[in-house]
Amino acid sequence: MSDVVIANRSRAAAYMERHGLAALIATTPENVAYTIGSQLRATNWTMQIYAVMPKNPEQRPCIIIPTNRLGVIAQMGISGADLYVYSDFFVEGSIAGKPSTPDIDLFYDLLQTTPSYATPFAALEAALTQLGIKGQPVGVDEMRMAPDIYSKLTELLPSGGAFPAYALFRQIRGVKTEAEIALLKKAAALNEQAESELIAMIAAGVHEADIAQHYRLAAVKGKAVPAMTAVGAGPRSALPLIENYFHTIAPGDLVRFDLCLQLGGYWADTGRTAVLGEPTEWQRNHFHYVKTGWERALDMIRPGVKASEVFEAALTTVQKEGIPHYRRQHVGHAIGLELYDGITLSPGDHSVLEKGMVLCVEVPYYELGAGGFQIEDTVVVTEDGFEFITHMERRLYQQ
Amino acid sequence: MSDVVIANRSRAAAYMERHGLAALIATTPENVAYTIGSQLRATNWTMQIYAVMPKNPEQRPCIIIPTNRLGVIAQMGISGADLYVYSDFFVEGSIAGKPSTPDIDLFYDLLQTTPSYATPFAALEAALTQLGIKGQPVGVDEMRMAPDIYSKLTELLPSGGAFPAYALFRQIRGVKTEAEIALLKKAAALNEQAESELIAMIAAGVHEADIAQHYRLAAVKGKAVPAMTAVGAGPRSALPLIENYFHTIAPGDLVRFDLCLQLGGYWADTGRTAVLGEPTEWQRNHFHYVKTGWERALDMIRPGVKASEVFEAALTTVQKEGIPHYRRQHVGHAIGLELYDGITLSPGDHSVLEKGMVLCVEVPYYELGAGGFQIEDTVVVTEDGFEFITHMERRLYQQ
């Protein structure tokens, strides 16, 4: 993600204008990554890493980090933001005429030139001052700022305190930029490659755990971070979340996959269902019901439609098609820097779909004692509908 | 970690007694894991997962989770805590006489019997009521509770609000239980195995990136989560934190490793230094200075000594031994459920060492343009000194 412009600064400016804010302060890793276009990791909960996104899209964002992160900034090639550091960190030496690499040259330069403060709060205050907005109303991503610093910040702000901005960041992030869509496509492609390998592994005598482990290794080989690895076979195909593995695949088993990884900060989340051997009529029928609901959800997706309307259409379709008792809490969710990235296609979410939103659409059915079915794909909302980001065939795979 | 008793409940009770608290509410994944003996992951920042640790060690802890996590609870074999769930989640079917597995049986049972609430706050309130401590003072791990819920919780509590308990949890966790030490040893052993493989890979023409990737795969093969993978060769051995790789190893290069992974929730963090070929006098000497400081730090470690005293002794030793300008912000840190798990061996930390504390001891030297040196080991404080948790030879490795 180095120095790619990720954030939709004009969309952010419009939201800040609407709420009367001069800037947004990102505190969670995802909102920091969005603001600066690169991921920065904290070592523990006390370590504070912030990014400030000014309303004016012409102003550069600011990064507030511990001094020791300057080397990481240099290695990642982050150059689109102004830096403010806090806390001591000692590195000796000089590099003139000595063995170096471009990241060391830059690190050395940053160590000499970056303004340094005693505390994260002082560094943040300096950033706001430098941006010319100290004392003006700001939004603060409230989820990952230490509460004592949050209180202190409140004293800098007009009465009423900070505007809690985690949800606002997610609204801004809701419509993806071209750079983000490119990253989501990369993550999805890696995930689908791995998922195809997993389907090919299905055979009698293979343990769920071996398939799950193959997924994790495939993700790491592809430079991604594997997360939820739902590989459920036989009776365990009916389990929605799977974090442990107990079943050895036998002929006739359904195998349900729901696989998540993060690549370059962006998530992929794709699901498929397979069967070892010939599916039973019940399996074939229920896959068909789920697929029909999933197709109905996709039919609905276009700008102007409410998330809850997509839900309603998919739900009633599955009920009419063949599962009258079908219930579901959602039939999909936004995906991006977070796995659940904001809106959900659910009865209570009346958000209106916009062009550029990226959604995972899934209409799974879980029946304990019988089996589970999943098709989950990722789509981007276009001017008059949607475009697939995932491309694997949507069928009941047979091995 | 399933159902191993991890927490030191009597130590926790003593700290709660001292602060007049009836319970502690864990909100960060680490403090939740400590309280219940198992890790539970949240999907995003809005998802709230809490664990309540009552002061009375005879009372079971409580877990507050979204309903969909019940399957994970069943799969992990978590049975030492009472469950309170919130939010809708639909799974159909019955299991009587149908294909199942023990985790499905348990999941089904939990779905029928677990008290369910509309919101995480209502579930938390029910847990406090059930424990008979609603309205009594409690400590709240303030780092990972959504601020709106934190405010609401304050209304339940005596005036003065919640006692911020993140630091208190870390103090309690500071002295590890036998079960925790066993887990830290497992993590360290895996990390050392990987580090040995990495040292063996050092050869002319090998890229840092290939060594780093080998580490990540070795961690995943060992069921661990790889984190900071500092593999810096040649000039890049002088970089403290390494998150990107640019150098191909050449004869004479120092290669500095600082490797972190998490296994079963517990961290390992080990460092070694190697050289390709014969070390120069400068390399040999500087490794010796660092090693002498590191040995001095270890000499100091025993119950009753202050963290800052260990720091001072190591620092002055390195300065006298051969690097008069030697500076350092710390010479080690507690390790456990967090990589930086509480105290640091630093000038400002006057915590007194206690038996059962687990510390990483490191006295690195970074000189840009010249090279970097690291020995980092993990030790547990014993009655009259310490015992190593890491076992690799502490020498300047030669390949």
TrEMBL record, chains A, B:
Bilayer-spanning residue ranges: none
Database matches in InterPro entries: Creatin/AminoP/Spt16_N, Creatinase/aminopeptidase-like, Creatinase_N, Pept_M24, Peptidase_M24B
Sorted UniProt keywords: Aminopeptidase, Hydrolase, Protease
Signal peptide: none
Top-rank taxon, per record: Bacteria
Domain Peptidase M24: 183-383
CDD domains: APP_MetAP
Domain Creatinase N-terminal: 10-174
One MF term in the entry's GO annotations: aminopeptidase activity
Protein name, entry field: Aminopeptidase P family protein
